[in-house]
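Ticket opened by: R.M.
Priority: normal
Category: complex prediction / small molecule

The reporter submitted a protein together with magnesium ion and asked that the result be attached to this ticket for the collaborator who will pick it up next week. Submitted input follows.
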Amino acid sequence: MDTLPLPDGGTAAPPPTPDQLRELYSLMAAVRHLDAAAVAWQRQGIIPGYAPELGQEAAQVGSGYAVDTARDFVFPTYREMGVARAMGVDMVAYMSTHKATWHGGLYDPVASRLAPIQAVVAGSVLHAVGWAHGQTLEQNDGVALAYLGDGASSQGDVHEAMNFAAVMKAPVVFFVQNNGWAISVPTERQVAGGSVAARAAGYGIPGLQVDGNDVIAVLDATRRAIAHCRSGRGPVVVEAMTYRRGPHSTSDDPGRYRSLDEERSGAGEDPLGRLRQRLLDDGIADDAFFAAAQAAAAAEEASVREGIEALGPRPGSEMFDLVFQETTPALQNQAASWREESEHV
Amino acid sequence: MDTLPLPDGGTAAPPPTPDQLRELYSLMAAVRHLDAAAVAWQRQGIIPGYAPELGQEAAQVGSGYAVDTARDFVFPTYREMGVARAMGVDMVAYMSTHKATWHGGLYDPVASRLAPIQAVVAGSVLHAVGWAHGQTLEQNDGVALAYLGDGASSQGDVHEAMNFAAVMKAPVVFFVQNNGWAISVPTERQVAGGSVAARAAGYGIPGLQVDGNDVIAVLDATRRAIAHCRSGRGPVVVEAMTYRRGPHSTSDDPGRYRSLDEERSGAGEDPLGRLRQRLLDDGIADDAFFAAAQAAAAAEEASVREGIEALGPRPGSEMFDLVFQETTPALQNQAASWREESEHV
Amino acid sequence: MTGFRQAQSPDAPTPHPEAPGKRTEQLSMQQALNRALDEVLAENPKAVIFGEDCGRLGGVFRITDGLQAKHGEKRVFDTPLAESGILGMSVGLAMAGFHPIPEVQFDGFAYPAVNQIICQIARMNYRSRGTLPMPITLRVPSFGGIRAPEHHGESLEALFAHVPGLKVVSPSNPHEAYHLLKYAATRPDPVIFMEPKSRYWQKGDVDFGAADAPGAGSPAGAPTGAKVMREGRHLTLIAWGAMVSRCLQVAGLAAEDGIDVEVLDLRWIKPIDADALVASVRKTRRAVVVHEAPLTSGLGAEVAQLVTQGCFDTLKAPVERVTGFDVPYPSGDLEDEYIPNIDRILFGIQRVLEYKRG
Amino acid sequence: MTGFRQAQSPDAPTPHPEAPGKRTEQLSMQQALNRALDEVLAENPKAVIFGEDCGRLGGVFRITDGLQAKHGEKRVFDTPLAESGILGMSVGLAMAGFHPIPEVQFDGFAYPAVNQIICQIARMNYRSRGTLPMPITLRVPSFGGIRAPEHHGESLEALFAHVPGLKVVSPSNPHEAYHLLKYAATRPDPVIFMEPKSRYWQKGDVDFGAADAPGAGSPAGAPTGAKVMREGRHLTLIAWGAMVSRCLQVAGLAAEDGIDVEVLDLRWIKPIDADALVASVRKTRRAVVVHEAPLTSGLGAEVAQLVTQGCFDTLKAPVERVTGFDVPYPSGDLEDEYIPNIDRILFGIQRVLEYKRG
Ligand SMILES: Cc1ncc(C[n+]2csc(CCOP(=O)(O)OP(=O)(O)O)c2C)c(N)n1
Ligand SMILES: Cc1ncc(C[n+]2csc(CCOP(=O)(O)OP(=O)(O)O)c2C)c(N)n1
Ligand SMILES: [Mg+2]
Ligand SMILES: [Mg+2]
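Result attached by the on-call engineer:
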């Protein structure tokens, strides 16, 4: 279950170069910083809420980094800020969803290759299968990456998606972040058998479990999985074992369901500290580099915050105008009376 | 995957006695006869439709025979006539659903331990889990038997059911009749990986594949599975490999999607002929016995047909009276105007 | 599952010219739908048809009969047995630029897909700010009347009509079926296409050249409005799908008693052509709406309220609703007690005509 | 997921006597619901509560707070994350003689369970000819107004009201919440209990002794009818759930202009208390119905049609509907543009009052 041979004998998943390793670190540092900042913004009243991904930086950056945005397409949940960042998505447009500006975010999903933010648990896993089957029908070589959590794995749609994808040999990577929790419910009361990757065998497809706190391992596993899909061999399940170090969201209180001791023992090694140590050990980066990465992260955060603070509400007319490609008389009438009644006031 | 150790070292699944083998044969013969008759009734206009189970007699009778109707509960699909018969359900009341008298059938599910006939594919699999969990909550030792097909295995509800049952260690036997087809779609385009039993491992529960045309093997597997559940070890998946020898239903035309050659090669050995040979070989039954069984089957069919032909429509007032335990004023008003307008006419 | 009339094949596949031209042919609704799908596949290489049994078998109602053989397994294919999967997959195909035309085998089996329909298909265009349109045409054999097993006779129009982001249409005869399906399956928005299964085998003239004939109240050039199927002066009967032909029958019977009934085929359940409703009832001053679905919170309430809103001054009596009861759709033996029959519709007409104020 | 007010705990669990007696207490709706559930568990050993996060966490809204600790893990437990699983499992538990009180975490996540709700829960009593009753009380935190993420602000009452075999109720304040939940959770039929989440934290008097006080129009001894929350002579405002308090506010404002508005809390969405509607509007001769759900095919249409049917002679103007628009529930920034606000309700009242025939 733990390795996946490469279709091309190795070139599809080369080990990351020193430059790439430094880039991965910078990305993870930026994500860590922005994530912590977003929690603070919520406390400061800048945004109404946020779902932090503290502890999942390696799983998110490592997998998002493996995506080829020229041909692949990614289906996130509501917690994939690190994936979006690694893919180069505009962070103000991404974060706008947490400002309650627009469900799904303001970024262009087509241009950025990132589907709108999905609030239904497991809601978009089947979309990935359909998109991927579209690649097969058109003989394109794009791969779909579907993100889901350990909690999401319980949903019927995930089973339907894995079975459909396996029957149709659709090029989908089911990327599971098993972060130990679905709000207050731990994995052992959620995932019977203990592993989502282990389910893959039941569909006759490969399943990989990977240390989700090791960005290099995540990158390698995701690249292998994408290469497998791209070569026409059908879907793969990758399960990155990680830990949700923070609350489920800014309105959650983990103290009600887990102790600090449990958190400490469950969390494992910090993904960022681990990469830092690796880079130091291998002489790939030094303190100056880390300081610069930290400064860049802080600067980036400041500019994203500025963008978010400047973000006004969308015009109410968009409620009506964006429902359909071809609007309807009923909707036009409703828009007209809305306009009239709000102007009146 | 193919055997399940018994919790009590063997007494829970003793080999069938000669008497039991003869009873199994008689049941299968009765079922075979009634099934063929029901298809004929449809052609004769006695009933509007029927879903034959030709070829599945061993899977149905063998599993239904293993049920302890003093404590277990069975959740059928729309094709479980043989299970119902093996459990001793009144066959006129059962068949009434195919007369279009009452959805679900006219038998009493509580007394007969057979849930109403279920027309939603995979619709009742979760019910079995809930019922079984109720046994755990009350420290009863009842076991739920959920019937489903290879096609049904694709539904999300089946995944949710297996995961729930495994997490809660609910005493459920998921009894899959893999009859090769879901209407026109063959198992290989339906069940990725090829085996529903193989999915069990992904939930950390046992899965057994059994020759569904061998009634003794089916009985043994079901007894083992029930014993496993009853001893508090959680759910089991049993997959009986069999073949739908007839059309999906009396309105289906298999000639559009499978050839007679395919049917012949797919069907395997006839379950009834096989048991007959076994009984002959072992000297457990002779031609006189088989002739008597056949005569009994014919007599039974005649009496069921008589019952079905005599079955009048239910009074229309039941439409209103059976919706709730506590009716509502709106419903009473509707019933009153229905009565008035139908009497008027 | 069993017992309903489904296995009939269409008469030997009628050959037809590449461009249908201005011709009229006698077809069953099954044939008309099949023809429309055939043409859509031929005209739009991005159109794909899929669902349970719609490939080799041609669907349990044979609506996709012969299409896989003609257009190939990539264009017309069977899926595993999972409705949420079918609709969820449609979303992804639409995101990849396809025009999916999925089939749900029966009305009652749309329920497992409701989450994907409501939360995804109906909202993706909005959520993505118009960048990911959902040109999905979901075909649902609908309504009762064929003595079928449980869950094979449901009317889901009120549910779908309430969902923002969906359009919903139901044809009442072969001509409408051909034109409405061709129209729906070429739109950039999701359309639920409710086929009255009890009418699949009735034949009628399909005028292929009439695509641009405006229906009453609809803008010229697009079949988007309701349609007056019979003109009358005394009362308007409003229906859609299978109930339209029953209302036409009723109108015929009422005429024998000197009652001149107008029959309006709503066609579009969402958006509803309120102008056509109001135009008709302003003239007749009385209305009865007929549907198979249960009464409470059914589409009849919306229709009645639109009529009342638009014709309050002229209305001679409250709009009557003749509908199914608030009970689960019953088994075949009781079906005729449940579905509005001719007598119940006539009683409804009578109540409206005899209404006396206070 | 994020951003809504949910984490607050109730004030330290209020101890309460075994028999609540004839007392009045100030409670939030969250506390009132929690109290009702606590009592139901104590009184009925067959009652079980389960869902996502309702065990140890006490639910994201803390409605089940402390109940697992008090009644044990067999009575109150977490399930895996699958709504169809939760509702499907409820059916089996009911068949085994339990009274399941499942929770769906938010309105929008009831959609994955719709198949089990409509095809199984609502029909099992009927299908089994009364031998397998479904005493299931499904709690659904409902409606919008809390600036929440997508799918956390939905109004599903029209959908549920249309389903034969379901009963549907929504409380508007802590007193109603306590009594209606205790009533619903002791019935032998399935009840969808729609909790207005924006009202969870508002406090109000709960009169524990008032259980048998008949609401207007309801049969004495059972809280099954609608309720007049404010009497008035000029117009009836009809609402349920969170919109009731807004309508009471509007009535207060209208009174300043000399307009005497009656406010009717529908309470039961199915069955609707048509008698109470008619009694009120026969008196006021004018009505406006208010809801958050989209206009088309919303419950407002049913209410309007029931009023029109029952008050056709006396009605001075067509019933107005002030509702959400036919658009997906928007993000927080646009929420106040979508939910009927005081101004829009006042405009609706004005349209009815100023209505001139022809
Ligand atoms: C269908 C559905 N049910 C319930 C919810 C409420 N909810 C939001 S996140 C969540 C837990 C998800 O857990 P998991 O899939 O492990 O992802 P994680 O939050 O750990 O990233 C729940 C129950 C939802 N958003 N969608
Ligand atoms: C949810 C649902 N979808 C579709 C159908 C229509 N349908 C009835 S039986 C059937 C095939 C079922 O195949 P399988 O589960 O293998 O059982 P079998 O018929 O072979 O016994 C289908 C698609 C249905 N009844 N329910
Ligand atoms: Mg998780
Ligand atoms: Mg099968």
